[in-house]
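Box 3.1 — From sequence to structure: Casein kinase substrate phosphoprotein PP28 domain-containing protein
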Amino acid sequence: MGRGKFKGKPTGQRRFSSAADILAGTSAARPRSFKQKEAEYEEDVEEESEEESEEESEDESDVKKKGHEALIEVDNPNRAKPKTLKARNLDASKTTELSRREREELEKQRAHERYMRLQEQGKTEQARKDLDRLALIRQQREEAAKKREEEKAAKDAKKVDARK
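Predicted structure (token representation):
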């Protein structure tokens, strides 16, 4: 019976190949001539790999070329060449140079640490101002405390005089 204009999602029956069909080359997924094409392709790949291995042994870079680079020799001076270093070629005494941003960040951190150390010792201008301000506040508090004590003593003296 017809379903109308639109069909359901699985439009066709799926056919799965058995392992025996795949080995025999009679699978529904591959044409019968696939084995022949596959064998030719494998031979071509082996020949290319032998040629590439000879070329790679001549070249120092062991980089596998992608896309059209394998077909066309491209010499781009701006292209970054990967630098892979082996452990035995690595120089332990050589330190890597920092980028400008990293170097500026380190300088900034060191300057801040130096400033904070001087700040704790009271040698910076801001620290001197803070210490002067603190000394002034201490002096004002001491004067206020003395005044309160004098007023308290005066009140006590008035109470004693009033009782007599």
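Summary of the box: The chain is about 55% helix and 0% strand.
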